[in-house]
Design goal:
Elements (H helix, E strand, L loop, with lengths): L5 H7 L10 E5 L5 E8 L9 E5 L11 E9 L13 H4 L5 E8 H6 L4 E7 L6 E11 L9 E6 L5 E6 L11 H6 E12 L5 E11 L1 H25 L6 H30 L24 E8 L6 E7 L15 H14 L9 H31 L5 H22 L2 H12 L7 H6 L22 H35 L5 H6 L5 H4 L1 H37 L1 H32 L4 H9 L2 E7 L6 H14 L4 E7 L5 E3 L5 E7 L1 H5 L3 H4 L4 E9 L4 H9 L3 H24 L14 H13 L7 H12 L3 E5 L6 H18 L6 H11 L1 H10 L8 H5 L18
Parallel strand pairs: 2-4, 13-19, 14-18, 14-19, 15-17
Antiparallel strand pairs: 1-2, 3-8, 4-5, 6-7, 7-8, 9-10, 10-11, 11-12, 12-13, 15-18, 16-17
Keywords: Hydrolase, Lipid metabolism
Organism: Cyprinus carpio carpio
InterPro entries: INPP4
């Protein structure tokens, strides 16, 4: 071989695998082209070599091009890897040389089945030392526009075919819609043998997602906006007694501090450029706490002879958790429980409202902010429609106005609003309850209002609040009555003079003067309705704002700090969910059954977690549980536009808008085009698999994991019942294995209550059920790098075995091949700049069998 420089190696070998057990280095030469194959000899005199080579379009490879294969052994053990700085001369020592063989491109093209079996000859051509099988495959058979390539095999084992960082523009994986959200794809293609000795092609593509940063930045902006509004609402409470006023000032000061911190965080995020994911080594960075860890999408596309291509998607993300805040005192689940206890113990300085009532207060506040402007707009539209020539639009607008007003009344006629109004009345300056006045014979320092000293109804003018409701009802009834009268007059005029319309009745000066003033009457009634609704809304807004003041005041510092933690965890979880929803939607745009299910009942999103219930990972799991549970507050809406996925609404009700281009949007069912809110039901299943889980199972406590799995099984089971009641079975995807979903659910139910160590069957069953129900799959561990990689590759190979007849004899080989050469080792490289899973031998002894990586791919590194 001709000598090459270190610079040449780095220039031409961009996609080199570093493992000497299974790697190929190729050097671009005009003629001939030399390929150097390395295979470890340690422990085997019959090594297996699996690799592939593709030729880019700009390489001058012709039919007469000669290709020489030189095979070298490496005698320093399985664990050694080739660094980027290593030179070929170091590796290709004469004592490592095994043999070589040559062939021309023409030889390969003209051979039977385009496959050559070549004898490896020693350097002096005196002996044969083995064989190498070379086969050619045209990538156009997979996707148009790809280059030709060939594979080299020793003993025809399962093969890694080629590696690419791009796909063709006609590829469904890389179309314009996908490319708007998913970037920097890494692609690997494999060729595996089936049970009937045929070959399947498997394409594995991993990509970053623009939503990793865009969703958190939008959320932070919404948090700032909401907290700014909250400050204004507290100021709008009006004059309060000194005690309540001091508490209000303290709470406003705390909100100001949070707003400043969020503004600084947002400013730092706006400065960032470069990768679209947060690497695992940055998970403790404070200014990145809202960004999900190592968020990537992974799609496996399976292409079998005479069968439709199949797609299997999964989102991989580090467990949504507040790493920058630490887990010394536990995670959100534990902290929230502690917080509620502290609120009760400090209720001497404020009024204690339980969590369900504060949640109700936020819901009422949201309803008020949405419905009041809607009612006002409908009232104005009613006046405009009254001047048109047709009575039907007028009746339609009136019906909408009536419905929205009824929703408004139903939401605000709540006992919480009434009791909050009483409490706010008691907080005004100069208020002294009867129990206080009887106990005080002389002036004294004002005492705070205890939860048991909320004024009774008889101490407050309830009739004033009731009169407001009566005014709303009267105003609406008067509007309805007047419109009925106008329509009756219109009908009479049409019978006597068909040319007269409703607009004539209202506005024409040719008609009797009495009818001319009716439009003015309607305008007065409409304005009265708007005024009454505004008054009710203002009172209700103030009352529930006072409730939220109590929540913040009862445990001010801890409560607002806890909100920051919850905001950060929710941001990470929402970014991952939005990524999964977009990926699932784009994949199902042509699936009418999926789209029907989407708008009829929504989707299930199954989060798989591999965290242990020991040490800090307990806190991570507690954070993750609350963050995923909070996703119940999220809905999705599909819009027509090219643009970014966006989210809006206050903390308790989020809507994420997913844009589609015109042609895709117009092909959707009518319900989706009309902007129906789409529900996603998140469920979480956790099974720890590492050595820390071994300690937890033998000496610690795994009740958190057991509770999570049992609770989420019940949620999943409830979704399945709704699914079977609403969506026909033909809407669900077909699988080769015909096990019924109900049977899978029953088995899962048995497993979540069975006392079994590291029962990973829970994860397998939950993932299988999710896929059969058209769901969104997400897999997590601490950083989505090591344990997640083991889980994703195991799931992919299991799908190949169960759904695509992967030869069972090749299952472990395929698994090792994906872990050694596939997208997941590239993910490790992207995160820590090292192609090593962060495991050591002792740790792996505690892992379930199929979660262990092949030798040479792991070693203890900083993550």
């Amino acid at each position: 071989m001709m000598p090459v420089s270190k610079g040449d190696i780095q220039k031409h070998l961009k996609n080199i695998t570093q493992s000497l057990n299974d790697c190929c280095w190729f050097i671009h030469r005009p003629h001939p082209l030399t390929l150097c194959l390395f295979s470890s000899l340690q422990g085997s005199r019959d090594p297996m070599f699996l690799t592939g080579v593709s030729f880019p379009p700009d390489w001058p490879v012709y039919s007469e091009t000669l290709i020489k294969l030189s095979v070298y052994g490496e005698n320093n053990g399985h664990q050694q890897t080739v660094s980027k700085e290593a030179t070929l001369s170091t590796l290709m020592r004469s004592d490592n040389f095994l043999g070589s063989s040559s062939f021309s491109v023409t030889d390969l093209l003209k051979s039977k089945d385009q496959q050559l079996s070549l004898s490896l000859r020693t350097a002096d051509d005196s002996a044969t030392v083995g064989t190498v099988v070379v086969s050619r495959m045209k990538m156009g058979e997979i996707e148009d526009g790809e280059v030709d390539h060939f594979t080299t095999d020793m003993h025809q084992k399962c093969t890694l075919v080629y590696e690419s960082s791009h796909g063709s523009v006609n590829d469904k994986d890389n179309g314009p819609i996908m490319n708007a959200v998913f970037k920097n794809a890494v692609c690997k293609v494999y060729r595996f043998q089936t049970v009937d000795s045929k070959w399947m092609l498997v394409r594995e593509q991993m990509a970053e997602c623009t939503l990793s940063f865009s969703i958190p930045k939008q959320l932070i902006a919404l948090y700032i906006q909401e907290d700014t509004c909250r400050i204004q609402e507290l100021k709008d409470l009006g004059e309060l007694s000194p005690h309540w006023d001091n508490l209000r000032k303290d709470v406003i000061s705390r909100y100001d501090q949070i707003i400043k911190e969020y503004q600084d965080t947002l400013a730092e995020l706006e400065k960032l450029t470069g990768p679209l994911f947060k690497p695992s080594c940055s998970k403790g960075q404070k200014y990145l706490e809202f960004i999900p860890i190592n968020l990537h999408t992974q799609r496996m596309r399976v292409m079998c002879p005479r069968k439709t291509d199949s797609f299997y998607d999964v989102v991989t993300v580090g467990a949504p958790a507040a790493h920058s805040q630490g887990f010394k005192n536990g995670g959100l689940q534990k902290l929230l429980s502690k917080y509620e206890s502290e609120k009760k113990s400090t209720a001497y300085q404020c009024i204690y409202y339980p969590p369900e009532q504060t949640a109700k207060a936020r819901e009422i506040l949201c309803v008020v902010s949405q419905l009041q402007p809607h009612i006002s707009a409908l009232a104005d539209q009613l006046l405009q429609t009254a001047q048109q020539s047709s009575s039907q639009p007028l009746r339609d607008v009136l019906k909408s106005l009536e419905e929205k007003t009824e929703q408004f009344v139903h939401a605000l006629k709540d006992e919480l609003v009434k009791s909050a109004l009483l409490a706010l009345h008691a907080a005004r300056p100069g208020y002294v309850s009867k129990c206080q006045s009887s106990a005080q014979s002389s002036p004294a320092r004002e005492s705070p209002v205890h939860s048991d000293s909320i004024p009774h109804h008889k101490e407050y003018d309830e009739e004033e609040w009731d009169r407001v409701w009566v005014s709303v009802a009267k105003s609406l009834n008067c509007v309805i009555a007047l419109v009925d009268k106008l329509q009756e007059q219109d009908n009479n005029n049409q019978e006597s003079a068909p040319s007269h319309t409703l607009a004539d009745v209202i506005t024409s000066h040719k008609l009797p003067v009495a009818t001319v003033v009716w439009w003015d009457e309607l305008a007065v009634l409409v304005q009265s309705l708007k005024k009454c609704v505004a008054e009710v809304a203002e009172r209700a807004r103030r009352s529930v704002s006072f409730v939220l003041l109590q929540e913040a005041a009862c445990s001010m510092a801890q409560g607002l700090q806890l909100q920051q933690r919850r905001d950060a965890v929710f941001s990470q979880a929402l970014a991952a969910l939005a990524c999964g929803f977009a990926m699932r939607l784009y994949a199902g745009l042509e699936d009418k059954g999926f789209l029907r299910q989407l708008h009829a009942i929504g989707l299930v999103a199954q989060f798989e977690s591999l965290l242990s219930t020991y040490s800090e990972e307990i806190g991570m799991l507690e954070d993750m549980e609350v963050g995923i549970s909070d996703l119940h507050r999220v809905t999705f809406r599909i819009t027509e536009a090219f643009g970014n996925v966006t989210c809006f609404c206050p903390r308790d009700h989020y809507t994420v808008e997913v844009p589609l281009p015109h042609h895709a949007f117009q092909a959707l069912p009518e319900e989706l085009r009309e902007g129906k809110l789409l529900r996603v039901l998140p469920v979480l299943f956790n099974v720890g698999i590492n050595e820390q889980q071994t300690i937890a199972e033998r000496f610690g406590d795994i009740s958190l994991q057991e509770r999570i799995n049992q609770k989420n099984f019940e949620i999943l089971e409830g979704y399945y019942k709704s699914l079977t009641d609403t969506v026909p079975s033909e809407c669900l995807p077909c699988f080769q294995t015909q096990t019924d979903i109900k049977e899978l659910l029953d088995t899962l139910g048995q497993n979540v209550v069975t006392k079994k160590r590291k029962n990973v069957e829970i994860l397998w069953l939950a993932g299988m059920i999710c896929r059969r129900m058209n769901g969104i799959r997400l897999t997590s561990c601490k950083s989505a790098k090591d344990r997640t990689s083991m889980s994703v590759t195991l799931e992919q190979c299991s799908l190949l075995r169960d759904e695509h007849q992967l030869n069972k004899d090749y299952f472990v080989r395929a698994l090792d091949c994906m872990r050694r050469e596939g997208c997941r080792i590239e993910n490790v490289q992207k995160n820590i700049k090292c192609r090593k899973y962060a495991f050591n031998m002792l740790q792996l002894m505690a892992f379930p069998k199929y979660y262990r990586p092949p030798e040479g791919t792991y070693g203890k590194v900083d993550s």
